[in-house]
Amino acid sequence: MKSTGLETTTGNSSKEKSDKNTFFVINVFGAQLYEKPTLDSKLIKRISVGEKIVAEHILETKQSIHIG
Which domain of life is it from (predicted)? Predict the structure, then answer.
């Protein structure tokens, strides 16, 4: 499983529209953004379903979380 450093985006810039690191949250429960690359760290923000995000960097982790 991969953890990501994310930023929310307006989708207005041409860079965002063509960026390969642009994703949409598709989990109906939304997604969580953690302070550190571990599921035990502080929850910073909940990201709503359908919200567009840009991954600044991707961190490998062996942790997983059950969704659903």
Answer: Bacteria
